[in-house]
Q: What sequence folds into this?
């Protein structure tokens, strides 16, 4: 969404995976420029709900971002730390590990992360790991 919200930008984004999904499910595909403009406006606003969200999360959580994502890796690391992760060595037996995980995928963007086999593999491993092994 780094591009502006003008009609030319909306047209160019028709080549994106986001539009591909939108065009399959939207009741009015011709409203793509309207949605695109609203998303662009929303993304121009400064927001950060990390503190509120992290404080209320209780479930084991894995954050997954690409190294070329619109979500800055520094922000993902900060959020991971708010969940208790990354603050110390977990120890040789993993006993100091929290139930939070951070996954930064190489060569992946915000737009193609869901097509990455590495994401599927990381999520599968996370879901298959018993929570007793993920907690302190």
A:
């Amino acid at each position: 969404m780094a591009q502006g919200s003008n009609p030319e930008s909306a047209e160019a984004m028709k080549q994106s995976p986001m539009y591909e999904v939108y065009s399959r499910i939207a009741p009015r595909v011709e409203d793509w420029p309207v949605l695109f403009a609203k998303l662009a406006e929303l993304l121009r606003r400064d927001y950060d709900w990390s503190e509120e969200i992290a404080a209320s999360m209780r479930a084991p959580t894995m954050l997954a971002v690409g190294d070329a994502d619109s979500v800055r890796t520094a922000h993902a690391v900060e959020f991971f730390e708010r969940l208790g992760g990354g603050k110390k060595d977990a120890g040789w037996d993993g006993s100091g590990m929290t139930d939070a995980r951070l996954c930064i995928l190489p060569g992946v963007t915000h737009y193609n992360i869901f097509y990455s086999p590495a994401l599927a593999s990381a999520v599968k491993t996370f879901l298959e790991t018993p929570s007793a092994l993920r907690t302190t």
